[in-house]
Amino acid sequence: MKCINNEFLSADTYKLLKLAKAKAKDINYKYAWVHKGMVYMKKNDDSSKIIIRIEDDPTCMSSNLKFLSLNVNSYTAHTASFELLVTETKPHIISVVETWLNPEISVSLNDYSAIRRDRGFTDESGRYVRGGGVLCFIHKSLKSKVLFISESNHINHPEFIIADVTLSTGSHMLISCIYRRPQGDLLDKFFLEFGKLYPHYNNVLIMGDLNCNLLKSDRASNHLKSFIDDSALFCVPFGSTFHTLETDSWLDVIILVSKDKLVNFSKSKPPFIDGHDFLICEYKLGSQNHYNKVVKFRDFRNCNHQALSQTLNERLRLTDIDPEMIDLDELVYFFLYQVTTSLNIYAPMSERKICRPKCPWITRELKLEFHERDALYKRYKRTGCQNLFSLYKIKRKELKIKLMKVRNDYLKSFLENESNGSNIWTKLRRVGIVKSKQSSPLDHFDADQLNKFYANILKKHLSCSRDFILNLPHLYSKKVNFEFNWSKIDIVDVTKNLQLTLQKSSGKNPDRLDLKWLKDHIPQVSLFLNLIFNRSLETGSFPEAWKSTKVMILGSNRKLKSLANIVLPQIIIDGNLIPYVNTTKHLGVHLSANLSWDFHISQFLRRLFTEEDPEIRRSDRLAAKNNISFKMPNFATTTYEHSFVVTAIRLWKDLPPEIVNVLSLETFKVKLFDFLISNE
């Protein structure tokens, strides 16, 4: 028999292939192989292939787990019915309560391991007291470990088992099987032990007969319902599970960690044993943590940097354009287009699929030793020589120890040598020690709720009227003549700051142009960038292509109606469209990419409702009316000019005369600083 396999197999597929190989030997088949996740067998070269199906083996069902829970009311009396039910349903985990077993009775079930808790105490005559008992069967394809078994021998105390089960995905499940006799003590003891373990598990299962009728609102049922709600668990809605001639009750339960884990559920149509239904539930497993990442990058391996520099010089030549005749946004888009097209020629974008996290501590020498280890195992499989297998195990053990030491040494030196805090976290995420989790408030709140919440905050203080702004200059008198000066930047400033930016940790750029791609071509782009920066300072505006935030316009219904003929940009955060709201007046909300909020007066509303020429700045108008000569830094005034001027004027009115009337600006700054510190 030949085994043909050239794929990396999952644990379940590999297990099925091993079974197929064993079966092929028994029935004298020549070939067994795997193709696209399916296992095939073939008798000889001329025969047709057959597919090995997995329906007969529940252990190969890697996507879901099936649970069975029932009250058997004496295991020995209903063994045949129970085993027939297991054969038909093929569950992975079985909870059996009221087993009525004692230590002298042994039980077993094919392909299942058993965990049991017998009542086990005797009466005055020395006979075992009949009743109670909990039994849990776990399929042998799943590894299990007992965590806690209740030990009390009082008949009214709940009987339960808590165990850890290792799933096929590698994750762990906390399972509990419980029996509480009618009118018995409440489940406080179980809740206490369960609460110690529950926070450490993402998969939780509770099964059993609790004799708490969830169809009623008595003390016992309310106690259980409170536990389910407080623990954020989900009780599978089976409805009535115990039936008598007079009434139906919901006594048997299956409780899961979340409703999302429930695939389907069912119960026996007629009662199975002594009025109790058996319960079946299918549980959805999380997918295995496959590391499958596609990385996009520019491939500079074959880049001709000299030709790239010449192309950038030709395309970014300032003599070919008239900057004064081009809008700032068009100037930036021209720069981005020319640089991107040049990079696409000499360093095109490429994609690479990464199947596992990067392990920088694995050197070439270690990889060669891994290859030698694998070669020993292949030779053993080919020849069956036990000496080769012994050498393989020795080599494998040595490599495990060596790999752990190399990894620890690398991480130790890495943490000792790294001084920049932001770089430490970035590199720790890259090596997989720290997991990055991207979250947003929109994961927990509705966008409308957030808008209303922040709109209410904005309405805490009434917005000022236009007349109030116009009358502000008459509310104070000039005390000091001063002037703010702003000068243009030069090519030296641009080049220096570009070099400093390259040394910082990388981040996402709004224009998707990574500065590291141009680290060898700074002289070619710095002259054009110098032009853009100075143009931005002169016009008091910021290019749209470099904005990482947007402004949400808020206003009254009347004023928003005036925007009907104006196309407002959509505000999209994490793929969610944030609607415009109209619950405040004259105000705007500055919305950043991570939904951090900042209040300011919207530039858009200023342009819309200001009748004066927009080129005449409000700070200049206020200064002119009060015979004060000063200039605001243009790069900041587009967003914060109004609020800054209003705040400055109000502060000036509150200053004492000994500060306002000083003759020197240096003395003024010192006294003002002391005054502000003393008022904090």
From TrEMBL:
- The protein depicted here goes by the name Endonuclease/exonuclease/phosphatase domain-containing protein
Gene Ontology cellular-component terms for this entry are: extracellular matrix
Q: Which domain of life is it from?
A: Eukaryota
| Limits of the FP protein C-terminal domain | 13-57
For the biological process aspect of GO, one term held by this record is: larval heart development
| Pfam families hit by this protein | Baculo_FP_2nd, Exo_endo_phos
**GO molecular function per UniProt:** catalytic activity
Domain Endonuclease/exonuclease/phosphatase as annotated: residue spans: 68-253
Taxonomy, top ranks, is:
Eukaryota, Metazoa, Ecdysozoa, Arthropoda, Hexapoda
